[in-house]
Amino acid sequence: MQDGSGAYRTTGSTCLHPLSELLGIPLDQVNFVACQLSALCAAFWFRLYLSPGETSPAVRHAFATIFGIYFVIFCFGWYSVHLFVLVLMCYGIMVTASISNIHRYSFFVAMGYLTICHISRIYIFHYGILTTDFSGPLMIVTQKITTLAFQVHDGLGRRAEDLSSEQHRLAVKAKPSFLEYVSYLLNFMSVIAGPCNNFKDYVAFIEGRHTHMKLLEVNWKEKGFHSLPEPSPTGAVMHKLCVTLVSLLLFLTLTKTFPVTSLVDDWFVHEANFLTRLCYLYIVMQASKPKYYFAWTLADAVNNAAGFGFSGVDKNGNFSWDLLSNLNIWKIETATSFKMYVENWNIQTATWLKRVCYERVPWYPTVLTFILSALWHGVYPGYYFTFLTGILVTLAARTVRKNYRHYFLSSKALKAVYDIVTWAVTQLAVSYTVAPFVMLAVEPTISLYKSMYFYLHIISLLIILFLPIKPQAHNQRWPQTLNSLNKKMD
């Protein structure tokens, strides 16, 4: 956004303003990319010169935190105070609250503070900064605060037999020190763009136990290794940087060629026929993806470059570095169900929603998870259009799949037809559902949906109301929650 003089406004550093003017890109976006590229360089240095074998965990925690604080201040200036205030408030809760309430207090304070910041920035102060500038790091810190609080509660406040296998594995048995706490929340690898990760994994990485711990989890001897190897992240980092570069090129070309504002043009709303609108909507939504592919893949590469993100050995005996990956592009673009698409988009956020909401609430887990996701993203009306529509589409897709999928499994030909049809339906349904998320405001959203005759809303409602619904426990997707069904929000 520009001020009256035509200069790009930002609360962060202005030293890159000449580069911003040269490229014609908002200064806050230039600062973001500069910080992530600097973080990538710092990550290589961190892994090579502050390795766990040569450096104490306290020093690694300290450097990770100092770098993170510097990048936050460089990017966001005075606004970084919000991050620091929230971190300090929630550490106070971590230290003083009872174990039985630590997760509740942390959750409501973190989500409440995030929501107040969303409201004040958009509807009260009108800071004039892009949405991602304000909310991005605060949203990531909120995820981490609540994740850690629930895991401390699981480790210190619940019986082992009441936990699912995953909750037991991630449970934290001792409250973190202040240095561990701020390092986990503000480290330079993830403070700018994430992703969220587990406290035990992060501490194991700092202490040098991360890769060996993951190798032991998959029983490395069965994979052909007779001693614990030292996997190198270099190949994974190079691959992800290539994806990042391609995503950036697509963003600079496709996104400008097919802007989301074209969905409310007179041609689209009044002249194009329904099939043309449907196809053009898909193209515009495809063009809006590369910026997410760019930011998330680069963030993943930064963590890998520091030596964090090793997930074990795959079925072919290759080392995997996808523990922190936020998306699987191939599975997204070939998804044949709404569920498959959602599971491979913003993976770490979906995992966070599962662990703090879906697994723990006793009623309407799907609905409450979508509502929490909308609240976490912000207060723009478009978010709520998307997530409320997503509830309808998810329930309808689940009903259709349960009623008809088995008819197409008798032969490869029928299965191929089923996959092609469900792929097309899924991609168009996702485009329809997420359009308000990108458009943000009420008026363009209503204009778009009116031009599309609210077709997906109507079809989804008809399916839910009139197709026979076979009983399906919500725990089928994540069976481990059965063990804790009667211990929700304990």
Automatic annotation (TrEMBL):
<feature type="transmembrane region" description="Helical">
    <location>
        <begin position="420"/>
        <end position="440"/>
    </location>
</feature>
<feature type="transmembrane region" description="Helical">
    <location>
        <begin position="452"/>
        <end position="469"/>
    </location>
</feature>
<dbReference type="InterPro" id="IPR049941">
    <property type="entry name" value="LPLAT_7/PORCN-like"/>
</dbReference>
<feature type="transmembrane region" description="Helical">
    <location>
        <begin position="30"/>
        <end position="50"/>
    </location>
</feature>
<keyword id="KW-0812">Transmembrane</keyword>
<dbReference type="GO" id="GO:0106263">
    <property type="term" value="F:1-acylglycerophosphoserine O-acyltransferase activity"/>
</dbReference>
<dbReference type="GO" id="GO:0016020">
    <property type="term" value="C:membrane"/>
</dbReference>
<keyword id="KW-0012">Acyltransferase</keyword>
<keyword id="KW-0472">Membrane</keyword>
<dbReference type="GO" id="GO:0036150">
    <property type="term" value="P:phosphatidylserine acyl-chain remodeling"/>
</dbReference>
<feature type="transmembrane region" description="Helical">
    <location>
        <begin position="62"/>
        <end position="93"/>
    </location>
</feature>
<dbReference type="GO" id="GO:0030258">
    <property type="term" value="P:lipid modification"/>
</dbReference>
<dbReference type="InterPro" id="IPR004299">
    <property type="entry name" value="MBOAT_fam"/>
</dbReference>
<keyword id="KW-0808">Transferase</keyword>
<feature type="transmembrane region" description="Helical">
    <location>
        <begin position="105"/>
        <end position="129"/>
    </location>
</feature>
<dbReference type="GO" id="GO:0005789">
    <property type="term" value="C:endoplasmic reticulum membrane"/>
</dbReference>
<keyword id="KW-1133">Transmembrane helix</keyword>
<keyword id="KW-0256">Endoplasmic reticulum</keyword>
<dbReference type="Pfam" id="PF03062">
    <property type="entry name" value="MBOAT"/>
</dbReference>
<feature type="transmembrane region" description="Helical">
    <location>
        <begin position="383"/>
        <end position="400"/>
    </location>
</feature>
<dbReference type="GO" id="GO:0016746">
    <property type="term" value="F:acyltransferase activity"/>
</dbReference>
<protein>
    <submittedName>
        <fullName>Membrane bound O-acyltransferase domain containing 1</fullName>
    </submittedName>
</protein>
